[in-house]
Amino acid sequence: MTLAHKPGSIVGTPFFKAPTDYPDSPLSKALQQPVLLGLFLPIQAGGWTNSTLPRSTDWRFDYNRDLTLKAEELGFDLVFALSQWLPKGGYGGVFNGQALDSFVSVAAMAAITKKIMLISTMHVLYGPWHPLHLAKFGATLDHISGGRWGINVVTGHRAVEHEMFGWNRIEHDRRYELAAEFVEVLQRLWQDDENFSFSGESSWKLNGGFVTPKPNYGRPILVNATGSDAGIAFAGRYSDIVFVTSPAGSDIASALEALPAHTKKVKDAALGVGRTVRTLLNPLVISRPTEKEAWAVADEIVAHADSRTPKGFQTFNSDAQAWKGREGRDDPYAKVGGNIYLIGTPEQIVDQFVKLKDAGIDGLQLSFFDFKPDLEFFGENILPLMKQAGLRNA
Fold it and tell me: Where is the Luciferase-like domain (predicted)?
């Protein structure tokens, strides 16, 4: 069987089986929660905050393994981490480039965890990746994890990363067309019972490919992070979970103003092809017993902002569209990190979670400044209030 694509089009057929088609899949069980709860692992130096204020946060595997096991103990639904390819020195300052690979490090946790879903961020267009490789690796991890592993599909937005692999950066929307080919071929390899051939617009070809064993629940979990029209169209056709950003500022008020229309747009893209998706947002949480203490911590973080990397993750030339609405905003607390920041008492944090849910957010992929103690504080002080508020099942 051969699959061909028309030039310049994102094609897609929603007939492929997804984990949500199986009531006993780990994803289906997690979606019974009123709000998905995830942890955004800090497998890169500096975590998510460009500050020199001392903290325990560490990029090494043992630290992130411990975070994952603690998150699982607390009942979190999923973890994942970023993927980046950077030259020597990284973004500079605390973001010095030391980082584990997301695919390998998150996948390595499949054998030491039991319930939590594990999502590996992967640039599917970079370098030597062939869908036959990833289909086999993914099916293997699906069996090791019992259907808990998945892919956060990213196409790359920094010119330096494409150039590292010997390319010029592929045009933004074209990247999603190529990623659509890649994901459709993955799904055919995961679900077809016969050998499968492919001839499309990508540099790789497939002649009589076959993968066994087949995944437990149709295919591994698929996630993508996006804010552009092309990315949202891709998400509607292929993703189970869409990692969205606030199209406005990092403060909660700006986010709540912009998110309802944005999340509706994302969900409508899926409904238009007969599917449903869940949205996931990344707040960085700073919480203490009193509001004064919480804001004092935030002030300390900002006071120690690392001037060696003034733009942080935006240091290199990027054509990402998800953050465009945030340009030119003068908000010093944006330096604490995360797509949005939530600062306050446990009660105030949970109130903000409720408002985010009302704005169309289906899941919270949390990050912290000092991960280990902040995650402990979250489990002891915030999670019980989330259950009382109906955000998490008891």
Answer: 38-362
